[in-house]
Predict the 3D structure of the following.
Amino acid sequence: MDAWSSGESYDAYVGRWSRLVAARFVDWLGRPAGQRWLDVGCGTGALTGAVLTAAEPAAVVGIDPSPGFVQHAAAAVADPRASFEVGDARALPVPDGVFDAAVSGLVLNFVAERTTVLREMRRAVGPGGTVAAYVWDYAGGMQLMTAYWDAVLELGLGDPAESEAVRFGFCRPEALRTMATAAGLTDVGTTEIVVPTEFRDFDDFWSPFLGGTGSAPAHLASLPETDRTRVRDAVRERLPAGEIRLTARAWAVRGTAP
């Protein structure tokens, strides 16, 4: 179902909102300047960019399994402190304990072995290092996605189990805290981050769904053209005319490597 290959399509769909969350996430971590950061599942480089802007790092290494995303991030983040490479979050291609902070944005819900990823991030940082991640609140805080899936399900054009709200129901504070503790982290804490998602008009809202990158866009692309039109019209009915002002909520978790 999911298609994760085009950096441009991802940025248009949710990447631009991820950048807003990333900036607040880095501020919440409060790490001192001059440290080495690891961005796991770096995608198009939104979180790496936030670290470079707000944390004054010595270096940031971004790792992602998608060559397309790595290529996009390397082109978009023009900073000599940043480097990017293809790699698997479940077996990070880095030595033990070489980073001060290992972070991940909007990744854990796309990996079945979530605790394994957090353990790998813990391995990558030294004692006292920070391991942290954030995920969208798919079940209750992503209004742009809710509008799409509500329309699809009302029209009978999808299985409820396909929606992110069902698939990623674990993206809640208590579940994140439990995973971080199981990964061996201490001083575990969580917070919510809410950002505005504003669109000039319906066309501005709808065009990212046509890119095919992400769960809802991939689902839309799988439908016949007549059904795509029906979904578009049903989504339009759910949203106000003119400028569309919505919000997106993420949940963040952080812990300390012993």
Q: What stands out?
A: The chain has one domain: 7-256.
